[in-house]
Amino acid sequence: MFKPLTQAVQLGYRTAFNLFEWPMAGAQRLVGISRVAWLFLLPNLLIFGLFTFLPIILNFFYATTGSDAILLSQRPYVGAENFSSLLSCTDYLDPNSCRRDVFWRAVYNTGWFVVLQVGFMIAFSLVTALILNRDIPLKGFFRGVFFYPVLLSPVVVALIWKWILQRYGIFNAGLEDLGLAPVDWLIDAHWAFFWIIFVSIWAHMGFYTLILLAGLQAIPSDVYEAAEMDGASRFRVFSKITMPLLMPTMVVVVVLSLIRAVQAFDEIFVLTGGGPGSATTLILQYIYETGFASRPQLFGLAAAASILMAVVLLVLTLLQLRATRSQAEG
Amino acid sequence: MAVVELQKLVKDYAGFRAIHGVDLRIDDGEFCVFVGPSGCGKSTLLRMIAGLEEISDGELRIDGRRVNEERAAERGLAMVFQSYALYPHMTVRENLAFGLENIKTPKDEIRRRVDEAARMLQIGDYMERRPKQLSGGQRQRVAIGRAVVREPKVFLFDEPLSNLDAELRVVMRGEISQLHRRLGNTMIYVTHDQVEAMTMADKIVVLKLGTIQQVGSPLDLYNRPANQFVAGFIGSPRMNFFEATVAEQARGGIVATDEGGRRVEAAVSPERVEPGAPVTLGVRPEHLEIGSERGHPVTVETIEQLGGESYLYCRDSNGRPITVHKSGQTRIRAGEEAKVFLPAEAIHVFREDGSALERLRIGEEA
Ligand SMILES: Nc1ncnc2c1ncn2[C@@H]1O[C@H](COP(=O)(O)OP(=O)(O)OP(=O)(O)O)[C@@H](O)[C@H]1O
Ligand SMILES: [Mg+2]
Fold first, then answer.
1. Within 6 Å (CB) of ligand 1, which residues are found?
2. Which of B212, B232, B252 is the last residue of a domain?
3. Closest to A226 (Cβ–Cβ): which among B77, B85, B103?
4. Last residue in a domain, options B171, B205, B232
5. B73 pLDDT tier (thresholds 50, 70, 90)
6. Which domain covers residue B337, as residue numbers?
7. Which residues form the ABC transporter domain (chain B) (predicted)?
8. pLDDT in tens, B78-101
9. Band (A329; pLDDT cuts 50, 70, 90)
10. Nearest to B52 among A228, A240, A245 (CB)
11. Could you give phi then psi for residue B73, rounded to 5 degrees?
12. What whole-number distance in Å separates Cα of residue B223 and Cα of residue B279?
């Protein structure tokens, strides 16, 4: 009863193995056993090369050539001119004195955005994580609530908030109901800058809260019990036990969110379009607009700006690698 | 310095009673050991005393003062955890100093006490290291040091040695006993290792399922176990048990018949049994006499000869395992038949409810 079945299975296996075996054996004979590994890596290398490595090289060529031609063969070599054009200012503190004033405005906007968004977001995430780490009712529900926006597409996030904040949005409708004057939330430069920070904190803090929460839960509870026996006040437990033990996680969170803030684009682009004027234009949007949205398309300038930005990100990434490594080593 | 009193102490976890009204008095300077099988509530009881676990009902008094509502630190206790629970980011010195800094002790006073504890526990050479850079035994010393510097009224230990290897455990056992002699504090020590309990304790508390089975000195528990559970728990290897029926009450004891119909005399008080009552006889392995002409026939299955002493693992005709501990060496070989005699004055008799009949003659005390 079993025997024919087993035999059939065996035959199936043997056929399948043979089928795989001859191309394998052929490949081994062709390139040598030790080089077969490269054969397996080839598809991945091709894709990586074509879509990641090649564009990086191309970007470098665009950055060192001029004109609005898109074909490299038609673009004249200009050396570092794109870079010097971006970097020429009479006073670096005043974007208006720069040749590329919008670039510098975007740089300053990005700087402020990074500092404020990361600073406040981490403060809020930490407080939220500390609260969610305690024995509060509906803990699972609240953890879900804070994490939920992370799952939304940035465009959806921006559209939701635009719908709330625009001139005839529900926020202003609410204000009017209360007898208050409506505010041009996205048209006033200061308010618009406030709201892009607010919305991107709202959209991303759940992610960092979750990481910090995991960091808090990794602190062994017996350490807290020892501190309790040692008579530590709540403040001392926080400052002398929780914070130092959370520090490695914190460093990772800071660096990750810095990288992300430097790269901020989509939700802001949808929410304010970089306006009013260039009040909420960040560096990535500048690159996009210079290279693709403006006429003539200044590919060279955009490529040069993206290289400058890549340098900043590279530094941050190295920091992150160091932080994660030292955390892994404890 | 400190008397600890437990009055009808109860611990309820959601829908589960872990401690069932425990009454206990631990005298000043006493080394008291809680012992019992896993899950019997030793840690829970200790943590209730420490203030880490809320007391559901009953009263806890330290030096006569009710402390149920006081925070852990206010009770004047220090605890050594099974997992050491050292602060991983602090050096040994900072670990020791942390508790004193919390109560704003002057700097030079902290220094003095920390150095003194370090000397006492021989951890002075690695004061600037972190816990991760220490061995298990060194960590345990630091954990004890952290308790010592606080100069507590009472020391609490929750299985402090169970993460150490056997050799180190013996060394640390000695050191904790020495610490107790030196400081003279009241100490409460939790373990499930009855050897630790026997060697360290002034007073042993045997727990089972959240109730106290017996309280007494180590030899009290060994010689006069109150019930079959304590008899089986204290002593290693375990006491041998035989089923029997009381045949007659006699002067100086009772006579019982075992399953094979053999008569066994036992020097226990005949007051609380009637002829015909089923009882359990218990004899410790070291009190069985093997190789004589009289007694139970058994088959010797395995022999462990340690030179100075021998363990014989036997089985009787009913298939019941019987362990015999003989000092010195033995000529008996595995597989041989032998007879095992139960001396009347060494027999413990337990009634059907497990409680022990009072022993009338106790050989060890002679
Ligand atoms: N937080 C808790 N919630 C519910 N039940 C608990 C809790 N902590 C302990 N228990 C139960 O209380 C009982 C006693 O636990 P305890 O930790 O005191 O045992 P123990 O004697 O220390 O055992 P061990 O030797 O394994 O450490 C156990 O049945 C355990 O399951
Ligand atoms: Mg325990």
1. B 13, 16, 18, 36, 38-44, 192
2. B232
3. B85
4. B232
5. confident
6. 238-365
7. 4-234
8. 999 988 999 999 999 999 999 999
9. low
10. A228
11. -70, -30
12. 19
